[in-house]
Amino acid sequence: MNQIIYHKNTIEFVTVAVEFCSFIEQALSSEKKKFTDTAVKILPFLYLKGCLLPECEEPEEVYISEKFVTEEIYELIRNRIASLLGSQDSYLEVFVSDMQYSDTPIVAYISEDLTDIYQDIKDFVSIYRIGIEEQMYEALYNCRTNFKNYWGQKITNVLRPLHGIAFSPDNEEETSNASSPNIPDNTRSILEQRMEEWKDEPDLDHWHE
């Protein structure tokens, strides 16, 4: 078990995962150009490290019951990203499971895709921070399984519209979006409070030793 949860590729994935979570959480104070420029760089890196996660067998017992990303936090982040991207949040996707029932592309949303990825990654990182090895192994197994079946595909889907936005000539700084009137005034305080709690949890730096 230790060889897998402390494997070099696992630790490298955790490192990128922490950076990705921080990037998504900072969307509260970001601007569209900076956000999209960073997204098209970190998402391929996250995908690469997900591909390199070591294989692990399904755990015999279930230890994890807690979800760290609540519905409230999920909606706050999703709404913030949607506000940041505006009309460019939606895109037409052809590589989704629902396409088998449709002859036309299906509307998808960058904000929803990114928040779905964040939810899975944040839950994984939070379990690793706790440091209970049985839970870490289960979290790693779940994360790797979800990467293959779920959020790995979401990364490849959402990169296409993000690439179009990031490298569009019109992708200029839009500082007015940083404080959208569509976002409740308490959005920052709620998420920032939760982020402060996450910061107080055990550090991950000792894994690099």
UniProtKB/TrEMBL annotation:
Region of interest (Disordered), ranges: 169-209
Per its UniProt entry, which superkingdom is the organism in? Bacteria
From start to end residue, where is composition biased (Polar residues)?
176-190
InterPro entries (alphabetical): DUF5063 (IPR032025), DUF5063_sf (IPR038312)
What is this protein called in UniProt? Answer: DUF5063 domain-containing protein
